[in-house]
Amino acid sequence: MEAKVINGLRAPGTALGGASPPTSPGLLSEVLTLLLLLLHPLLWGLALQLHSALTGSYIPGTHSVAFVTCLNEHIARDIARAIMDRRLAACVSILPKSSSIHPFEIPEIISLPIDQGNPAYLQWMEENVPRR
């Protein structure tokens, strides 16, 4: 029986000469390293959440600020009301009478992560917008 090698690792269940695959510390180390690299963002996020829970500090990027252009104030109010009814935002500010240099066919809808802010406001936002 021939061993199958994929990206330098022997495929599970295959061995040279039909014998059981040997347990190799090198192979185990490679697999664990690969798993840690794949899970790194998840582990980092969990570590930040644990730190935040223990210290009460804000995790940068947990919340964001969104900007949406609307054709008129009536549409802006309808969108704001729908957002607040669904508790997708802690608050909505409508900036009337803004104008654009260019006419637009596609509305601007962007979201920017909040890295820093007034700690009391960030805590209030955390309490009023459920995690999704």
From TrEMBL:
Coiled coil location: none
Domain of life: Eukaryota
GO biological process: response to metal ion
Gene Ontology molecular function terms on file: copper ion binding
Family to which this protein belongs: Belongs to the CutA family.
Subunit structure: Homotrimer.
Protein name per UniProt: CutA divalent cation tolerance homolog
Native source species: Serinus canaria
